[in-house]
Amino acid sequence: MTSMIATKRLYLRQWQASDLALFAEMNADPEVMAYFPKLLTPALSNTIANKCQKLIEEHGWGFWAVARKDSADKSDDFIGMVGLNNAHADMPFAPAVEIGWRLNNDYWGLGYATEAAQAALRYAFEVLELSEVVAFTAVINKRSQKLMQRLGMTDTQDNFYHPMLDAEHRLAEHVLYKITRQQWKLA
């Protein structure tokens, strides 16, 4: 298994020390974090990045750092993260492997999230040989749902309340999308 994937314009790669400050800036941006319960402190952001890095070291896959191939300054090529993760055990659909993404808003609307997520799905089905991959987000997060649809994922119509949020929280109700290996092959 490899810890780096190349697409036409991007690398999905292992995390680097130079990514941490840029990731922390993203995680403190209200627009980027609009569909997360809170903004992250730099310390918590670094903890997440370090966990992502460790999981890639151990398993060869996870939430990869996404870097632009055309960046003139290779220490500043980080634009976010995209990848795969084992869903938390307390999720109603667990066990499952989820696909997820978080990009700096300077790179929204350019097709980078779709390109990186397509590569992550290819890895899930061709390398890991998974039978299905899921994705979930708050019901009000239409942007992520549109990306799930572009990936060929289908809404399971099995909404759930995120177990880490109070049921009254504006982000509590989530949609669950999935794609099987067979659906992916036909897409």
TrEMBL record:
Residue ranges annotated for the N-acetyltransferase domain, each copy included: 10-182
Pfam family, one: Acetyltransf_3
Gene Ontology molecular function terms on file: acyltransferase activity, transferring groups other than amino-acyl groups
Record's keyword annotation contains Transferase: yes
Native source organism of the sequence: Psychrobacter pacificensis
PANTHER family: GNAT FAMILY, PUTATIVE (AFU_ORTHOLOGUE AFUA_3G00765)-RELATED-RELATED, N-ACETYLTRANSFERASE DOMAIN-CONTAINING PROTEIN
InterPro entries in UniProt: Acyl_CoA_acyltransferase, GNAT_dom, N-acetyltransferase
Record-given protein name: GCN5 family N-acetyltransferase
The entry's keywords: Transferase
